[in-house]
Amino acid sequence: MPNPSLTLSKHLSPAWTRATMLAVLFAFFGLFSLSGAVPADAAVKTKRIVLGQATNKLKPNCGKNFSRDCIVEGKVTGYQVFRKGTARKNSFRVPFSGKIVSWSISLSRPTKGVINKGGTDHPAQLPFFNDLFGSPASARIAVLRRVDKSKKGPPKWKMVRQSPVQILNPYFGRTVHFALSRPLNVIRKQMVALTIPTWAPAIWKPRSCSFNPISGVQDPDACERAGKDFTWRGSRATDKCKLAIDPDTGEPNEALKKTGPQQKVNSERRYGCYYGENALLYTATVIGKN
After folding, report:
1. Are the beta carbons of 234 and 77 closer than 8 angstroms?
2. Most buried pick, 16, 158, 169, 203, via CB within 10 A?
3. Separation of alpha carbons 90 and 79, rounded Å
4. Mean pLDDT, the chain, as a whole number?
């Protein structure tokens, strides 16, 4: 049965044209004059970064590739701390003040029915996760500001703004980009997190960490390295990190019953869970003034 602590990918072109992008930039920086003329050096006065771009080539788990564990995430707000390929810790920490103008998420295509491969029946993934977390699959991004920095323990974050919720089912099997009609203000050192109100097949976990009930972890040494290179924090209490269901009764454990994302603006929450060996596959595009 799929791991309930759960995450496919072809590229979908961004949901805007170059002209739309320029319009967003111009409107954001107040570059329109009364005559409609735009300063010739307007473009060079802006800067742009795509947070999370380093994991663009990673493929989310689940779907018909049964060589990796089927793992997704549900009912949580989380942000990547370490991801191999980035030069710094907290690759979703905003490096300069500006606006988030778009975000993306890479999705697998969960199976809808039982599939037999190599003599083994693989359970249907889509109905399993719908029953576990609710439907449809959905996500949004959130902007977090650190509070209580001087206190010990897991970091505490205040949620200051968030994007509209997007239904993900139509985009299964793709990387989809969502342009924000109302860009989100961000300030340097704030964090951009992924909020999953129900569930999302948007997690990469390496093949080396796949688990077999008989032989165990496929490649323990490689899996241990992945545990250091790819980590993220979730909005759960420290003692509610491991989601599980009883194999005999199918009932969710206490952590699964109580888990929930941070979706109330100005709410504060400690991010007490630190997960390794996987990556949340989302990005956020930030633009600002030089």
Report:
1. yes
2. 203
3. 8
4. 85
